[in-house]
Amino acid sequence: MNIIFHNSKTCLLRTLFQSNRAHLHLLRRQFSQLVSELPEPTDDLQRETWRSVAGLVRCSANYVPLSPISFLERAADVYRDRTSVIYGSEKFTWEETHSRCVKMASALTQLGISRGDVVATLAPNVPAMQELHFAVPMAGAVLCTLNTRHDSNMLATLLTHSETKILFVDPQFLATALTSLSLLHKPPIVVLITGEDDGPNDLNSNAFRYETLMEGGVTGFSVVRPSDEWDPISLNYTSGTTSRPKGVVYSHRGAYLNSIATVFMHGMGARSTYLWSVPMFHCNGWCVAWGLAAIGGTNICIRRCDPKDIFDNISRHKVTHMGGAPTVLNMIVNSPVSERKPLPHRVEIMTGGAPPPPLILSKMEELGFGVSHLYGLTETYGPGTLCLWKPEWDSLPVEERLKLKTRQGVRHLGLEAVDVKDPISMESVECDGKSIGEIMFRGNTVMSGYLKDTKATEEAFSGGWFRSGDLAVKHPDGYIEVKDRSKDIIISGGENISTVEIETVIYSHPAVLEVAVVARPDNHWGQTPCAFVKLKDGFSVDGQDIIDYCRNRMPHYMAPKTVVFEDLPRTSTGKVQKFLLREKAKSLGSIS
Fold first, then answer.
1. Do residues 183 and 40 both lie within one domain?
2. Is residue 541 situated within a structural domain?
3. Which residues form the AMP-dependent synthetase/ligase domain (predicted)?
4. pLDDT tens digit string along 97-141?
5. Does 19 map to a domain?
6. Among 176, 275, 407, 415, which residue's CB has the most CB atoms within a 10 Å radius?
7. What angle do CA 328, 334, 339 make, to 5 degrees?
8. Does one domain contain both 506 and 573?
9. Beta-strand relationship, 495-497 and 480-485
């Protein structure tokens, strides 16, 4: 009897369940139909309405504004005992770094720093620079890493423009900083990057020492998170290769995405040890300053970037990754043998900026470095594309393989799109490796804009893309190759001449250490190439030797008609200041 009743009850429940399931299925279909018929939301109000009808809720359980701050917090949990920073005899773990950054963030708020205030640095690649990349945004402030090669007048201009509230200064640059502060009506608070008792004793009452300031911070400080992931996290001034620096604003979201993209395309992981040969003040170290926390890697900080320090640190700390402009590569391959040490393993090095000459790439490989070429600008958080290597290229002849390595490649995973377009029609150029256009970017890792310069921002974003000002071609495989800056292209007798192509040929001359080519006025041709050359020690050649060398390797109209031997003016990030060389070329007068 009980069994019969139980079976009947089971059948009844099964029938009810099947009926409810069918009803539920019908409701789901009706709900899906209702949602599909809703118009596409076009503004915040419509979007909220759509979410309400669809039964969707954005709350703390499923949405947090993206920020690199989370990288450090996770590193303190996941990689707590792993080494985060090494600088000489100093060494910290990720747990210690997190604690120090929280205390510094607390100390900054005690000095009156609040959301949106600018905190600047003037320092080399020392541990404080790594810490401030987290501590400043953890206080809700905006980090402004200033170029250490700026003179006092330029520093005063940038401190005023950014409205900096606090300036962290390394003792190496204190004299320059104090001179710049004397030019300001309302100078910021100064924090000297030293220990409690280190450094000069004549600091005024409006100055602090780094370690002393940090000790006053609270360990349990509640981190100030961005209220919107589009909130600014850093302010980077352009290098000034073509004009007065502009203030490029990065967002928390963009920094988060570009950090992940950069460490990913560099092939970095939890066991990676990164040598800081790229200035952290340049695009926040290509966003690697944040990215290393995401993977629990180790920062090897160095004050100077010279071949001896590079080889010594690679050997001592088993460095796996590093970065640098082509000038750093040039410096390494031309370093004295006495300053080199055998590499413990293949060291991956990212290089960006002008395409590195194939000869330099070849010599770097001979020394044991694996070189990856990246491309980007300050406005794209540093790297935006990479020459993603294809396995089938390994079997190509050496010269062809090295030539492929100089391409700027394809967009990284954090960028929505990159294209080469006609700057007027905005049409994409043909993928034929010949048609020249302007490189343009679109995506979350493009700057928010230029600080206090609406006109420049609108011009840069004209047409719905960020206009780089770099001219390039696109190959049939979709890889882009930079040919020149739009300002640097030489128009001679109606022909467009790429200064990069001339520089590549001159670089292959055994006597040449550095070269930069610009246009010189010519009464007949309009413009002709003018090469500024720095020779290697112990070599002696004249201008005609260089001209003949070029004519034997390229069309005669592309060969320089003028050669000037002198040191090249560079920014601290290794970029040649061609606007200065163009002025020098003009001062030579027109060729008759």
1. no
2. yes
3. 72-451
4. 999 999 999 999 999 999 999 999 999 999 999 999 999 999 999
5. no
6. 275
7. 90
8. yes
9. unpaired
